[in-house]
Amino acid sequence: MRDGRVTTSGGAASGLDLALALVEDDLGGEAAQKVARSLVTYQRRPGGQLQFAEPLGPGARSPVLRAVQRRILADPGSDLSIRSLSRQAGISERHFTRLFRAQVGMSAREYVERARVAAASRLLTETPRSPESIARETGFGTQATMLRSFQRVLRISPLDYRERFS
After folding, report:
1. Structural element, H or E, at residue 6
2. How far is CA 15 from CA 11, 71, 104, in A?
3. Which of 23, 134, 151, 165 has the fewest CB atoms inside 10 Å of its own CB, making it the most exposed?
4. pLDDT for the residue numbered 4
């Protein structure tokens, strides 16, 4: 809440919103967006949305799984099937699936989807490229698949994301 020179907030989330608003006032929208990304939060949270987080959760304890996570983040458009990832890790698909969930707190498929959404969201805000092109590059294949993932992860469409955060 703003009242002249006094600005207040209640609660942790609204405190983050306030801090980002003050950064935006002092340093501009681009600076506020960079700070929001480093704080793993939106610059302005749309109502009813989940927080968008980068990075995508904790790093695995196992060096082999951390290497898998690095591969996913470095090239989200590549073959990131469970078969391919488990081969990289040198373990069976079943063991990989169990180990990944135990150490990362989500399935490898969820992690891949979130990594792809994160990569696509960056391209949507930092480039003028078409959603179709971005969907292909980031491993979604089609714009429709990317839309479903954005709705599931961020509860917003890719085009709405671009409009809001560009």
Report:
1. strand 6-7
2. 6, 35, 28
3. 151
4. 79
Place of tokens 């707190």: 105
What is the 8-class DSSP label of residue 66? Answer: H
Distance of CA 55 to the CA centre of its chain: 7
Cβ(87)–Cβ(120) under 8 Å?
Answer: no
With b for 16 or more beta-carbon neighbours within 10 A and e for fewer, the 86-113 pattern comes to bebbebebeebbebbeebbeeebebbbb
Look at phi and psi of residue 117 and say left if phi exceeds 0, alpha if psi is from -120 to 50, else beta: alpha
The three state secondary structure string of 118-165 is: HHHHHHHHHCCCCHHHHHHHCCCCCHHHHHHHHHHHCCCCHHHHHHHH
Contact 83, 76 (CB under 8 A): no
Domains of the chain, first to last: 2-38 (no CATH), 53-166 (1.10.10.60)
pLDDT, one tens digit per residue, over 34-76 is: 776 555 444 454 444 444 444 566 788 999 999 999 999 999 9
Please report which residue ranges of 1-157 form alpha helices under DSSP H.
12-27, 29-38, 63-74, 82-89, 93-104, 108-126, 131-137, 143-153
